[in-house]
Write a structure and sequence with these properties.
Blueprint: H1 2-8, E1 11-16, H2 18-21, H3 30-45, E2 49-54, H4 57-65, H5 74-97, E3 103-108, H6 110-114, H7 116-131, E4 135-140, H8 154-164, E5 169-174, E6 195-196, H9 199-205, H10 219-231, E7 236-240, H11 246-251, E8 257-260
Parallel strand pairs: 1-2, 1-5, 2-4, 3-4, 5-7, 6-8
Antiparallel strand pairs: 7-8
Helix pairs in contact: 3-5, 4-5, 8-10
The protein binds glutamic acid.
Length: 264
Amino acid sequence: MIPKVIADARKIVIKLGSNTLALPDGTMNRAFMNEFADQCADLAKAGKQVVLVSSGAQVAGVSTIDRWARKKDIHYRQALCAIGQVELMQNWREAFAARDLHIGQLLLTREDFKDDQRTLNMRNTIFTLVDEGVVPIINENDSVSYEEIRIGDNDNLSALTAILWSADLLILFSDIDGVYDKNPKEHSDAALIPEVKDITELRAGITIGAANSFGTGGIGTKLEAAEKVTAYGIPMLLANGSAPRCLETLATGKSGGTVFLARE
Ligand code: GLU
């Protein structure tokens, strides 16, 4: 099922969570970023188009400046994102440049998706970048966003992006293998659910735990993202980004995940 979903998609939005992009000590996982850029270059050669939604600004900020890690104050968190976003994109730029690919950065908030003119501009920018072979890399504009205009998590941001760009597929890479019937960190007999047709039914049958170390999402926001895109006819794939060559192994069926089928 997964290899077919990927093979059938030409326009793919891929979201990478902070836990996938950072090493356990909080520094950027450059080896992962290089490997990922390599796999994106292969997709491009195969005629596919990719838009990335990359988290990791805050964790990159902490590892860059080595201060304020425990401060909860929003201004410090925004300052960390302002510092870390540069670091994050510097790493992406080097990783993609080594594969002769340019990248472009878009920083967005919820407000941008509510305003028709801004939405049109974002859409045109993404289409133009992709048409010209440039890889757009999107994150929330954390340093300008406050509670009311915040999307808050990149799972929902990537869903909004997939809808905006009329993508054929959304892939969320996280530190979990997919959706389980029980929390796999607590229950050894938890089973991975390979395919989800009805998200409301799924919600009723699983336990939704809290988010983990660096990420903001957790399974709850992943289901919200799945609800958004599948309603627009876009399937979503949730898989583990820490497996070696995670994109390739998914495409060839060597690794698995959970597919949320698009609603008819
Ligand atoms: N925008 C946040 C960052 O780059 C991450 C949001 C998320 O993890 O969903 O640090």
